[in-house]
């Protein structure tokens, strides 16, 4: 190695143990740290390159995970002005029929991330993506809360078994979203 971090980071655990003062445990810990750093850097690159342009792209991003769980989860996607993903996080994990959506927490996190837009995503383990009354009411409440912060609720996508429901798509068809 030339003594530079990149050279050390590419060394195997076996090669690291040859360096003065590094035994097997420290070498393994160092290698693990470098691997985590690489993954973190890659994740940042991947996130910045993802453009969310449709409910289908939301489904491609979260569908594989959400189709495999047996309880409801609520996720939020944070986007910049050109709809590039700047963050995603699970906001809550619930039971078979519901999960909590905290408007204040979502608005606060969107402000912290300097997001221009938000997409709410949750799943229905029953398989049907059609929204219930609670889904509609929560969507309206979140839209109103975000508007006070000059942040757009771009969509609320509900993922079912192999399909999804998009509030934004339905707004275009029925002009009901957020009314």
* Contiguous helical run count: 7
- Give the N-to-C terminal Cα separation: 63 Å
Topology as H/E string? HHHHEEHEHEEH
| Beta-strand content bin | 15-25%
Helicity range: 40-55%
Mean pLDDT comes to: 85
Q: Structural class, from secondary structure content?
A: alpha+beta
Shape: elongated
Radius of gyration: 21 Å
Largest sheet: 5 strands, mixed
Q: Poorly predicted ranges (pLDDT <50, ≥5 residues)?
A: none
Structural features:
179 residues; 5 strands; alpha+beta; 7 helices
Can you characterise this structure?
The chain has 179 residues and is α+β, with helices and mostly antiparallel strands. The chain is built from 7 helices and 5 strands, in the order ααααββαβαββα. A 5-stranded mixed sheet has the order 2-1-3-4-5, sandwiched between helices. α5 crosses α6. The chain is elongated and about 65 Å long. The N and C termini lie far apart (63 Å). The mean pLDDT is 85.
């Amino acid at each position: 190695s030339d003594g530079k971090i990149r050279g050390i980071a590419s060394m195997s655990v076996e090669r690291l143990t040859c360096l003065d003062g590094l035994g097997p445990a420290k070498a393994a810990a160092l290698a693990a740290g470098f691997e985590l750093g690489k993954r973190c850097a890659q994740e940042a690159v991947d996130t910045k390159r993802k453009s969310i342009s449709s409910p289908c792209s939301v489904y491609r991003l979260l569908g594989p995970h959400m189709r495999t769980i047996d309880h409801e989860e609520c996720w939020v996607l944070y986007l910049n002005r050109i709809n590039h993903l700047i963050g995603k996080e699970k906001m809550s994990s619930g039971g078979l029929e519901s999960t909590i959506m905290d408007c204040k927490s979502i608005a606060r996190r969107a402000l912290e991330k300097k997001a221009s837009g938000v997409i709410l995503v949750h799943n229905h383990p029953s398989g049907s993506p059609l929204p219930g009354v609670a889904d509609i009411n929560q969507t309206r409440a979140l839209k109103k809360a975000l508007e006070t912060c000059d942040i757009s609720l771009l969509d609320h996508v509900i993922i079912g078994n192999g399909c999804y429901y998009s509030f934004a798509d339905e707004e275009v068809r029925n002009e009901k979203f957020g009314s």
